[in-house]
Amino acid sequence: MTLGTTGTDAASVALLEDALRKTMASASGPALDQALGELGWAEMLSEDPDLAIPLVFRLLGETGAHASVLNDVILETIDGLPGGTPPMPYAGGNWVIWERTEREGNPILGGLPLLEIPGGEQMRLGEARRAVGWWLVGSARAMLDLARQHALDRVQFGKPIASFQAVRHRLAETLVAIEGAEATLSVPGADSPDLIAMLAKAAAGQAALTAAKHCQQVLGGIGFTAEHELHHHIKRALVLDGLLGSTRELTRQVGRGLRARGSAPRLVQL
Known about the structure:
Strand order of the largest sheet: 1-2-3
Distance between the termini: 38 Å
Organism: [Mycobacterium] zoologicum
Protein name: Acyl-CoA dehydrogenase family protein
Radius of gyration: 19 Å
Number of helices: 10
Number of strands: 5
Shape: globular
Largest sheet: 3 strands, antiparallel
InterPro entries: Acyl-CoA_dehydrogenase, AcylCo_DH-like_C, AcylCo_DH/oxidase_C
Structural class: mainly alpha
Order of helices and strands: HHHHHEEEHEEHHHH
Keywords: FAD, Flavoprotein, Oxidoreductase
Domain Acyl-CoA dehydrogenase/oxidase C-terminal: 123-257
Helix content: 55-70%
């Protein structure tokens, strides 16, 4: 099965997700780029982005792998040449490029090969922001799964800590944030695509930050150790939140735009 030839029925998507998850569990970086290319990533991104982007980027978050596919989403949006590394805005007014190749001295930011550059030009980033949003949601779910399993396994006072109300509240609040972000990311953006994409990216970033805070508390001391997986997902989430505009920056940008406009558009038909 390849990304470019799979059907859109539930069974086909489930098989594809399983194949992608196994691929991402065994490869990352340029090796994963190559594997995704062989699976038909470019064709599916062009033909069915509404399926390709949420599926691939969510799984990147859940598995902890990384690939340079965000470059492809941006290039597809701006009709750029395949294989390029378009400049991407980063938090604080900075700009970065996502390097596709491994070389000695590769810069690493949160485990990602992001190289800071002097500046870049503004471009359409709606689909790319949604893609990073799905990646953040995947990372948040990975953190929630780690915390949930720990809460079930860890016993204090003769019973699992999952039975303690304070722990349950933190896990529940994290789940609500994730589900809300996923719902926002799934909103069609026909009328105000850029606005919805910014709000969706901000919601996903907030969900990931909420997951990092609460899951760290649930895991306690073990969550601070380098041997535990949690720190990997927290670092990744912090970097992804800053990429293409942080939660705080996007929220303020949207607020300024709505104040200048004097009204808020209807984003969802209820």
